[in-house]
């Protein structure tokens, strides 16, 4: 049976990098007899009329949705209509917020750096809480990592070296969800990105930067194809499955004895860097996986 799906992407992401990625998915679909149509999230209207849920993309509803966006309300609408969504609304929601993501990983007893979540403070209160900063200092040592809950490309990840910087960061982020975290010193500027589809590793690369504590390619991280140790592969699979991801890009840090520690699980991992580095086209694995899931459930 042939399936037709919608690839949903965000209307704000129309750079060449993103449109090129959509073409890859469309082509990968063609090669396995699946029709993939790229649609912006603003071109599909989610609504309720006479007490019934609808999505209207001016076309028949698809057999599946490949959700490359973070518009979880739209993903939710598809799911409530019984249309299979990859990754699920739940997974996208978990991975989008680093606080929820770490909570889920810890609940699965998976290794993550020690992490403290900032309390939510309504805008009425502008005072930093010295007792909370004391608690952070008691639990974590300098230099430490501070991360906003929502962020990517390393842009919302900071290094804090002393009390003064901690106070400043805390004040800057007072009304923004964020967290404080142990810096894994043995991994500064270095991590491993592992792409998972289902419960399998499909591609891996090491990223290392000499200029920055963040290994993101956007921060000057250099990519190198690697075959990671089994312990890294196993943990990446466990982390991906813990978030319920159908496919993901897991970032792992190097612990001081070379053991893997989870940095994050990306539900919307980019596929171009990993292709440039390893020549593995992850889109094929993802669509093949979706096909198997649809066939299983039909
Ligand atoms: N606790 C940590 N210890 C050491 N390095 C870290 C830590 N957390 C993040 N990093 C570095 O910062 C980079 C960006 O952090 P990450 O949590 O993956 O945020 P983003 O979603 O912006 O990529 C990571 O790839 C890693 O190199
Ligand atoms: Mg990352």
From TrEMBL:
InterPro entries: ATP-grasp (IPR011761), ATP-grasp_RimK-type (IPR013651), Rp_bS6_RimK/Lys_biosynth_LsyX (IPR004666). GO terms for cellular component: cytoplasm. SUPFAM superfamilies: Glutathione synthetase ATP-binding domain-like. Residues 102-291 form the ATP-grasp domain. Keywords: ATP-binding, Ligase, Metal-binding, Nucleotide-binding. It holds the Pfam family RimK. GO terms for molecular function: ATP binding; ligase activity, forming carbon-nitrogen bonds; metal ion binding. NCBIfam families: rimK_fam (TIGR00768). This is RimK family alpha-L-glutamate ligase. It comes from Natronobacillus azotifigens.
């Amino acid at each position: 049976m042939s399936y037709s799906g919608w690839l949903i992407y965000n209307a704000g992401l129309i750079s060449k990098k993103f449109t090129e990625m959509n073409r890859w998915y469309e082509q990968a679909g063609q090669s396995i007899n699946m029709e993939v149509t790229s649609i912006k999230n603003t071109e599909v209207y989610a609504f309720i009329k006479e007490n019934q849920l609808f999505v209207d993309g001016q076309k028949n509803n698809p057999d599946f949705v490949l959700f490359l966006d973070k518009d979880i309300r739209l993903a939710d609408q598809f799911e409530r209509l019984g249309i299979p969504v990859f990754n699920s609304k739940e997974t996208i929601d978990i991975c989008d917020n680093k606080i929820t993501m770490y909570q889920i990983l810890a609940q699965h007893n998976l290794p993550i750096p020690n992490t403290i979540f900032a309390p939510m403070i309504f805008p009425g209160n502008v005072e930093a809480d010295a007792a909370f900063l004391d608690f952070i200092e008691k639990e974590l040592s300098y230099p430490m990592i501070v991360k906003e809950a929502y962020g990517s490309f390393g842009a919302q990840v900071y290094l804090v070296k002393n009390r003064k910087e901690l106070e400043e960061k805390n004040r800057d982020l007072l009304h923004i969800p964020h967290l404080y975290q142990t810096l894994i010193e043995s991994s500064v500027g270095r991590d491993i990105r592992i792409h998972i589809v289902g419960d399998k590793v499909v591609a891996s690369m090491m990223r290392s930067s000499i200029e920055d504590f963040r290994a993101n390619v956007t921060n000057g991280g250099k990519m190198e194809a690697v075959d990671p140790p089994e312990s890294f592969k196993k943990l990446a699979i466990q982390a991906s499955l813990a978030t319920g991801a159908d496919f993901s890009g897991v970032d792992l840090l190097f612990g001081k004895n070379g053991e893997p520690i989870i940095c994050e699980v990306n539900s919307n991992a980019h596929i171009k860097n990993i292709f440039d580095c390893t020549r593995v086209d992850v889109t094929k694995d993802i669509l093949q996986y979706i096909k198997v899931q649809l066939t299983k459930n039909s």
